[in-house]
Specification:
about 400 residues; mainly alpha; 17 helices; about 75% helix; globular; VMP1 protein; transmembrane; membrane; transmembrane helix
Length: about 400
């Protein structure tokens, strides 16, 4: 029995290594083929699920038809419709970015670094330059310009900036909370059905429970601490795990699903922790792609006017290369100040700084990496299906 278990573990290890080699830069044709096949299987499964829930689907379509009619029928209600449309799409944009940051089939697009962080930073810099957060709408939020009314120097407060970006930060945090639901549902379904899902994280969780007393390394003890906190403390344990920098939070979702924690207990605590507490005060550094400072307070303080000026001065103090590095930062900040005090149609030349050019290219590279990771991950999922089918056929022989 021990020999059979050892052989099985060795085979699983080889299969895992074989799946990890299915990537676009090593096996492009196989990867693309498996990706399209996995996409078709997923579409088929989603279609079947929608058919089984066709009453909900019909209700959704009827509601959508009523909203569409309200949208196109002329009347005094159109001003409210336009306002709700703008708010809805703005909130949906940030919720979607939050989901992409949490899900991504094991990869995740780090949208705080790429989108929310820069948005908060630009609002902070503009607030200190304009001494106000009452930016004209429109063009805000697409473009930030200072309001026409006169304001006194130093009248802007930290709380005013926090309030200005609260909606975007909370919607992004809510999206990350939604992205934590798949591990919970997977573990819950496995516990209720009695089946063992083909998920490596869930299998590691089962092994961790079996060897809980003999765990020695720091990673195992940390996972056990998260599991014990969630299991014993309940709502407030989940809230604590969701409110602090925690790369092991997927384990909290699996733990809650495995021990059949009620959905609203898990999701409610996760939503409050990520969308309210974490987004307001957290300042962290989380691997692998530098998810730094996923908290708006951290970004606002970092990009306060005096902090930015001190950072630029420190750059200039670097021996030899300091002045050459300091110049583009000063030019970039000056260009932003000019933009803030002039409207887009005022004829002010819009020069491109190499810093903004580099950031745009960084965004493109990271989005491309995210897309490639999704393709590779789905191709590897199809390879896992083939391996599991082979296991099943061998068992039935």
């Amino acid at each position: 029995s021990f020999a059979d278990s050892s052989l099985l573990n060795e085979r699983k290890r080889r299969d895992r290594e074989e799946r990890l080699n299915i990537v676009l830069w090593r096996q492009p044709l196989v990867t693309l083929q498996y990706f399209f096949l996995e996409t078709l299987i997923n579409l088929k499964e989603w279609t079947i699920k929608l058919w089984h829930r066709r009453s909900i689907l019909v209700s959704f379509l009827l509601t959508l038809a009523a909203l569409t009619a309200t949208y196109y029928i002329e009347g005094t209600h159109q001003q409210y419709v336009r306002y709700m449309e703008k708010k809805f799409f703005w909130c949906a944009y940030w919720v979607g970015l939050g989901i992409l940051s949490s899900v991504g089939l094991g990869t995740g697009l780090h949208t705080f670094l790429l989108y929310l962080g820069p948005h908060i930073a630009s609002v902070t810099l503009a607030a200190y330059e304009c001494n106000s957060v009452n930016f004209p709408e429109p063009p805000y939020p697409d473009q930030i310009i200072c309001p026409d009314e006169e304001t006194t120097e130093g009248s802007i407060s930290l709380w005013a900036i926090i309030s200005k970006v609260r909606l975007e930060a909370c919607m992004w945090g809510a999206g990350t909370a939604i992205g934590e639901l798949p591990p919970y549902f997977m573990a819950r379904a496995a516990r209720l059905s009695g089946a063992e899902p083909d998920d490596e994280e869930y299998q590691e969780f089962e092994e961790m429970l079996e060897h809980a007393e003999t765990a020695q390394d720091f990673a195992s003890r940390a996972k056990l601490a998260v599991q014990n906190l969630v299991q014993k403390v309940g709502f407030f344990g989940i809230l604590a795990c969701a409110s602090i920098p925690n790369p092991l939070f997927d384990l909290a979702g699996i733990t809650c699903g495995h021990f059949l924690v009620p959905f609203w207990t898990f999701f409610g605590a996760t939503l409050i922790g990520k969308a309210v507490i974490k987004m307001h005060i957290q300042a962290s550094t989380t691997p692998p792609l530098g998810r730094w400072g996923e908290g708006k307070l951290f970004v606002i303080i970092t990009f306060s006017k005096h902090i930015v000026e001190q950072m630029v001065s420190l750059i200039g103090a670097i021996p030899s290369i300091g002045p050459s590095l300091q110049k583009p930062f000063q030019e970039y900040l000056e260009a932003q100040r000019i933009k803030l005090h002039h409207r887009s149609d005022s004829g002010v030349p819009q020069g491109e700084n190499w810093l903004s050019w580099m950031f745009e290219k960084l965004v493109i590279v990271m989005v491309c990496y995210f897309i490639l990771s999704i393709i590779n991950s789905m191709a590897q999922s199809y390879a896992k299906r083939l391996q599991q089918k082979m296991y099943s056929e061998e068992k039935t022989k």
